[in-house]
Amino acid sequence: MTIYEFMRWATFPLMPVHLNVVRNDLKHLLKVTSKVDNCLNILDVGGRKSPYTINLKADVTLLDVPQESETQEQLHLGFTSDISSFVENKRSNINEIIIQDMTQSKLPEASYDAVVSIEVIEHVEADELFVQNISKVIKKGGWAYFTTPNGDYIKNEGPDKNPDHVRHYTKQQLQTLLEKYFSNVDVHYAVRTGKYRVWGLQSFKKGNPLTLFKSITGNIVNRLQSIGVQETPSGTAHLIAVAYK
Q1: 1-45: per-residue pLDDT in tens?
Q2: If DSSP codes are grouped into helix, strand and coil, which group holds residue 110?
Q3: pTM over 0.85
Q4: Which structural domains are found in the chain, ordered by start?
């Protein structure tokens, strides 16, 4: 474990609820599908620095598009040479970094045990091709894990529209899409919205104890608020899908 990984691990309990929900889900999936002889080989699509797969007992390949537009830079999307160098130096479970568009994937079929794609599919115009190519690279019996904004509650329109989001899926829309390429799909809601979630999403700033206090308090309260919301379409921020090949 590197110093960077240790510091991230130590502060995870204080981080936003979505991050902790995803990490707990992934740790559970790895536990129930792990191999006896070696770690699972995971493709993290749109991974970039990906705090979601830090310290996981897996061999991780990060795949993302190159950062080419000003919007991508503002929203921290895509790979740059600096980001690639950072990841290679700070992460201990990274096998490979691939700069590629998953909708134009040249990866071999059945080459990964699992795929993780966190808050990515809403950015993809050709979403069906994206899911199809993800399914192709997963071995038989493997799984894919997706998260995306909850379109049943959060509409991507009006003054709050995200400039890089193509769509926000309803639960049924995401279920229908994934069922075209996976044999078993579970989609559910996650993370209660509201002021405490907003507090928790604020960046920790040195020299500003009020912001730090609000961030930590917001995440603690939001974690309690988010218990048992898997079947609650209203007032939840995310959809989570686990799809089995």
Answers
A1: 899 899 989 999 889 999 999 999 999 999 998 876 678 999 999
A2: coil
A3: yes
A4: 3-192+232-244 (3.40.50.150)
